[in-house]
Specification:
111 residues; alpha+beta; 60s Ribosomal Protein L30, Chain: A; three-stranded mixed β-sheet; 2 helices; globular
Length: 111
């Protein structure tokens, strides 16, 4: 979804995020967006994988809202750095450079 060290989604990722936004619009659930990185460390510049993961999550948030998802539907936007790799046995794999968009359950109103 992202090039190494970059927070800008690839065009393919942009299209996928827009499609997710369209699907999410059909449901009332709140949305969570989390950004992730591979295990490649940053060298210099004062940035870290924490910064990059948060920037990726915010890039996805912007795309979701540009595609029509109301800002009020966003429950959280977070960066997880390299702490939750998709491919645990391959921490440096490109598949770990991603965002996860989750529709959250809505709490039932108290009776």
């Amino acid at each position: 979804m992202f090039s190494t060290g970059n927070a800008a989604p690839t065009e393919r990722a942009r299209a996928a995020i827009r499609a997710v936004a369209q699907a999410a619009l059909r449901l009332p659930n709140p949305v969570s967006v989390s950004g992730h990185t591979d295990s490649a460390p940053f060298r210099g510049g004062g940035r870290s994988n924490w910064d990059l993961a948060a920037e990726r999550a915010n890039a996805a948030r912007r795309l979701l809202t540009e595609a029509g998802l109301p800002e009020a539907r966003l429950a959280r936007v977070s960066g997880h750095a390299d702490r939750e790799p998709l491919l645990r046995d391959q921490p440096g794999a490109a598949a770990n450079r991603r965002v996860a968009i989750t529709l959250l359950r809505q709490a039932e109103a108290p009776r």
